Every structure is written in C-alpha cells, then in structure tokens.
Automatic annotation (TrEMBL):
Residues that span the membrane, as ranges: 261-280
Record-linked CDD domains: NTF2_like
Record keywords, A-Z: Membrane, Transmembrane, Transmembrane helix
This protein's name: SnoaL-like domain-containing protein
InterPro entries for the chain: NTF2-like_dom_sf, SnoaL-like
Organism listed in the record: Citrus sinensis
Length: 282
C-alpha cells in the first residue's frame, strides 16, 4: 500500500514594532521582524490509496509593546476591533483631532440615512463633526458587540445613551473595513444602518409579496427599472410637480404658518407667566 503525505502552508511576512524600555530610558522603535503564524486551518484527508495532510496558516501584522512590568514584552496584533472601539471613544470624548487620525484619505463613509456616501477624509470629517455637535454633551455611543472578520474588517452593534439611559429608536449596526498604512490601521470603508422609528410590521411583507409578484409577471420591465432606478424617481417627481404640488403646497404652507402662530402664542404665554412669577417672588 502506497502512502503519500503532502504539506502545504502559507504565511505572510509580519512587520513588528519593537519597543524596549531599559533602565536608562532608551527606546528602540521600528525593528522589522517575523513571527510564527497562528494555525488557522488543519485538515486531514484519508483516502483509500493514500494520506493527504494540508495545513493553511494565516497571520496578521503585530506590534511588540512593553507589558505592565518593564522586564517583559508582549505581542499585540493590529486589530480592526481595537481601531473601531477607539473610533467611537473619540466620538464620545468629542476629540475631533484624534478622531481624524483614524480616517484614511480615501475613506468612503456610507450612512444609509443619507442619499449618498461621504467620499474622502474631508467630507467624512465634516459629517463626523456635525454628528459630534448634534450629540451634545450627554449623548454617548454605547458599543454592544464587536465582531472581527478577515482582512481587517469588523462589524459592531451599538445604541445611543443619554446619561447612561438608552435612547429609544437609536440602535444601529456598522460595518468597517480598515487598511494598514505604515504602522497605523485606518478606516477605509464604513456602512452604517440605523433603526427606523417607524415599525410597519406585516405591511412590509405584504408590500414585498405584491412587488415580487409584479416582478415575476413582468420580468423585462423589472430588469429595466433595476438597471435604471433614477427613472422611477424622475417620473415620480414630475408626477408630483404636475398633479400634486398645486394642491399640496398651499396645504403645507398653511400648516407651517399655523404651527408658527401656535409657537409664538406659547412663547408669549410663557413670557407672561415668567413675568407674573417674578412679581409674586419679590
């Protein structure tokens, strides 16, 4: 009986930052090296006429940093989850200068609440600055779970809190893709999905069923619409402008004017109440 044993392995060269603290305060940085890779997969296959063993190894770039004591050094790998946690910590701390260091120059940040993604560090930072300003002093991101994938990717569940209490309808999940630039792991792509305050429930399934039935009955029209989604929005906009706008605009204008009048009336009543309280408090 003949037996053949085949070994195959794949490893990636690692860049390590070696930092040692000596008694005289000497610091040594950026010493490239290689480390052994963690075995990710080890499978064996036994056949009738032979044995085949295959191993696949992968590893991620790591950094050597000093541990709690000055006499030992521990290995800390580059981690997308650590980068994302630091990213949200900067948002909670309102530290825009540090936050910018985690954004790559060609970053693409897609928030599904906006019609189009933010391209480049400048647009992304403008959006994040508006976000930090809108959160005020007491609203914070609370990170629930972080799941790390391959190639510096990570997914995260989060919600907003006001002084430690969860804000309703603020749950969300985000997906990030990072890239290693020099010795820093930066956010290159992001997609954010936020919980909708509107809960239509079974209506969505009914609507989906009707749409899929129409799509199956008219496959060519469906394919054309999917290839040209802007045609639908253009058609609806024109239909609204021609048929609905002449009637809707006056109603909306009257509705807005009514609420403006109510707001001014409430403001006047509030000022009168404050004036009366000041008189009686003397």
């Amino acid at each position: 009986m003949s037996a053949s044993i085949n070994f195959s392995g794949q490893a990636q060269t690692q860049r390590l930052c070696f930092r040692a603290l000596g008694g005289n305060g000497i610091v040594l940085n950026s010493l490239p090296s290689k480390i052994s890779c963690q075995l990710m997969q080890n499978t064996s296959k036994i056949e009738h006429h032979g044995i085949s063993i295959r191993s696949l190894a992968k590893c991620k770039p790591s950094t050597l940093v000093p541990s709690a004591s000055d006499d030992s050094i521990e290995i800390v790998p580059f981690s997308a989850s650590n980068t994302i946690r630091e990213f949200y910590a900067c948002i909670n701390e309102k530290n825009l200068e540090r936050l910018e260091t985690y954004i790559s120059d060609d970053c693409c940040f897609e928030d599904c609440s906006f019609p189009k993604p933010f391209q480049g560090k400048k647009e992304v930072m403008q959006f994040l600055e508006q976000l930090v300003t809108s959160m005020g002093q007491n609203v914070k991101f609370s990170v629930e779970q972080v799941c790390e994938g391959d190639e510096f990717t990570a997914g995260i569940n989060w919600h907003l809190e006001w002084k430690g209490k969860q804000v309703p309808f603020t749950r969300g999940c985000s997906f990030y893709e990072c890239s290693l630039e020099g010795e820093t792991l930066l956010i290159k792509k992001a997609r954010v999905v936020i919980e909708s305050p509107i809960k239509p429930g079974g209506i969505v399934l009914t609507l989906l069923k009707n749409l899929t039935s129409l799509s199956d009955d008219f496959p060519k029209a469906t394919e054309w619409l999917l290839n040209s989604p802007h045609v639908i929005s253009t058609f609806l906009l024109k239909a609204y402008t021609i048929f609905l706008a002449p009637f809707v605009r006056p109603i909306l204008a009257g509705y807005i004017n009514m609420w403006n009048f109510i707001a001014r009336l409430l403001g006047l009543a509030f000022n009168i109440l404050i004036y009366i309280l000041k008189i009686f408090s003397k």
